[in-house]
Structure formats: structure tokens, C-alpha cells
Amino acid sequence: MSIDINAINAKIEKESEFIEKITRQVSKVIVGQKYMIERLLIGLLSDGHVLLEGVPGLAKTMAVKTLSDTIKTKFQRIQFTPDLLPADVMGTVVYEQKTGTFSVKKGPVFSNLVLADEINRSPAKVQSALLEAMQERQVTIGDETFKLPEPFLVLATQNPIEQEGTYPLPEAQVDRFMLKLSIGYPNREEELEIMRRMTALEIPHAEAVVTPADILKAKKAVHQVYIDPKIENYIVDIVFATRKPKDFGLDELVELIAFGASPRASINLNMAARAHAFLRRRGFVTPEDVRSIGMDVLRHRIIVTYEAEAEEISAEEVVRKILNKIEVP
Q: What's the Rg (C-alpha) of the chain?
């Protein structure tokens, strides 16, 4: 079957026109942070949840809220605390005294965009309830099962510097997130602009320029972005190198990796690379798309050994070595 790349390119260029509208609106509020905004859009377009990690004050929450403002959609922010219960997130069955019957009261998870702020501040039963909804895209309350709305995306934040009063997400649960972003500080010029903008008499706001129907249409278009078999094999090589580094001439990593990436990594790397190409209004995936998104897909999926920790070698360094070693098609 022959692939008409020109036809796919033309279709993707047309379908991705709204991206410029979103970025224009977001940049009215958020200074810099292009990496974070782009990765949030990749998550939105490829049905993948995103975990944002960074010190307080880096506009993580504001970026998510601003992105939701640009889409005419339902947004809910849940502040995770140690006393939060699964029912506070999912909903519960309530007894109606007037009618003498029970009714379902849906929780804040029934939204298109859900911001789980400081997700590691709640105990395991709340985390697992949310992560089940993320995976199954449905919630059971009492005897009834409810489908979550489309599109549905969980954007979670966590603070890496505080350990007291936190419940770290288990590796198996972190694997449910398509991307894990490491958010850094702005540069001097950006900080100056942030200070001026946020101390002005009127703080700017983003306007809604896209509908959920536009997002659903774009998600279908992302699936149509062409990915060559050579690039598919390149993705699988990268993932297999995390499990069997010796087979790829990475002998020095054998003692450093306890567990490699799961098959979810291959699926997510494929979809994220397509979304990355879509954002660049291109109808085909290049190796550069895979390399650009590789760190965000893999950094939370590799568990390093005690030897690696003793030598202060992080999962990020392991991923970097793999990406630099695997031959680009």
C-alpha cells in the first residue's frame, strides 16, 4: 500500500491551524515555558496524562489553568491533601431525605481537564482511585459505572524538594503518566517580564479559542500522522536498550538499570512523536521527534539500581546515554 505523504501533510497542516491560536492566548499569560506548554498540548492531543515536577512558583498550576481557559471546556482543580478521600475526587452516593432515595453525586474528576495539584500529598487509596480513572476512563460509584467525558486529561503536579508529609507515587502508578516533565527556572529576561506582568494593574487572561470538538478532531488527525517502519524499529530499539543494554553495546548500563521501560513506553513514544510532528504541522514523524520527546516518556519508567544511586547516576543520565548510542535511521 503506497502512502501519499503530500496528502497527509496537507491534511495535518489544515487540522493543526488552531495550535497557533492556543499558543498565542497562552503566551498572553505565561512567560516563556515553551517546553511545558508544548508537552501539555502533546498530552492533550495523544490522550496521555502528564506529570509536572518542579519547585513551587514555576507557573505549573497557572499553565494548566490557562490552557483550559483557551478551550471551551470543563476544568477542575483538586488540591491533594493528606485527609482527602477517594469520594472527594470520584463522587459518592448521597441519601435524599425528601424523597427517601439514594442519588449519585459526581466528583470533580468528571471534567475534561483535571488538575491534580500536589498529587503526592494524598495517601495511596486516593492516588490509586484517580489513577484507575485515568486508565479505565470510567468511575464506579455504588452499583453504577459512569464513563468520563471526552476529551479527558489528568495533569498532576508534584514538588520534588519536600519529603515530609508526602506519599511518593509507586513506580507502577507513575507508569500511567505518558509524560513526566521536569520544569526549570525562567531566565533573567523572562523573570523580569513575569514580575512586570504579574504586578501590573490588570493581569492578562486567556480567551477560549477552541472547542472540545476541535480537540477530538485533532486527536484523530494525530493518529493519521505517518510513521515509517524504520522509525517504529528505532522506538523499539530505544525501549529494548533500557531492558537489555548489553545487546546494544551499552555494557556500562547493565549494573545501573534495575528495571527497564514497559511496553507502555513504546506506545507512548510512538503517539507522543506523532503529536510532536503534528505541533510542527508535519504529516510524518522524523527521528528528531522521537529524540525530542524521548526523555519525557522514559525518565519515570527506568528504575536505577543501588549502584547507580551510590554513583549518583540518575535515570535521566541513563536515558541520555541510550538516546546517544542507538543508531538513528
A: 21
